[in-house]
């Protein structure tokens, strides 16, 4: 039996950074543009929103009530979430390096879908967290987060605490738009949740 000649050749290429053969005169920027996938902005927003709803499906009230009943029957916590808002933002950041689209339109459409959604009612409480991660990851920054608190004060006629000589974040000339607050709670102060009547 003679050796059969191979008629096809298959090669797996990672879609994020495929190897593109180009002439030596082509610039790296042109190669990067060729490597990107062109996608409709509104279609991409709808696709991401479907992923968003699946990632945070436990925030649906019907699912939440069912989980609370299971917690009551089986004694486990409903707080064991698989994803945070940082996870969906990390996915969008990866897509931004590989997908060619109108990102301003895509982001405004996606955020409009998230804000107008009525299935993940609990999820509406995490809009600020989502916008914060979008800004921190460098994916998208709301205009209100692109300026400092004191500029927002002038725009919306808000009254912030007057500046003082005390050192601190708000004592600066131009405080950052996003800050972290870390609370250190002694373990003994949590005894109120584990001891006392009915515990």
Describe the structure.
- The chain has 199 residues and is mainly α.
- Helices cover 42% and strands 2% of the residues.
- It has a two-stranded parallel sheet with strand order 1-2.
- Helix 2 packs parallel to helix 5.
- The N and C termini lie far apart (81 Å).
Task: Note the main attributes of this structure.
extended; 2 strands; mainly alpha; 199 residues
Question: What is the element layout, followed by pairings?
Answer:
Elements: H1 28-35, E1 37-38, H2 41-55, H3 61-74, H4 85-98, E2 99-100, H5 103-116, H6 127-136, H7 149-156
Parallel strand pairs: 1-2
Helix pairs in contact: 2-5
Overview in brief:
With 199 residues, this protein is mainly alpha-helical.
State the major sheet: 2 strands, parallel
Tally of DSSP helical segments: 7
Task: Describe the strand arrangement of the main beta sheet, using strand numbers.
Answer: 1-2
- Fraction of helical residues: 40-55%
The average pLDDT score comes to: 75
> What is the beta-strand fraction?
under 5%
Residue stretches low in confidence (pLDDT < 50, at least 5 long) are 17-26
Overall number of strands: 2
- In angstroms, what is the radius of gyration? 25 Å
Task: Please report the distance between the alpha carbons of the first and last residues.
Answer: 81 Å
Shape: extended
What is the structural class?
A: mainly alpha
Summarize the helix and strand pattern as letters.
HEHHHEHHH
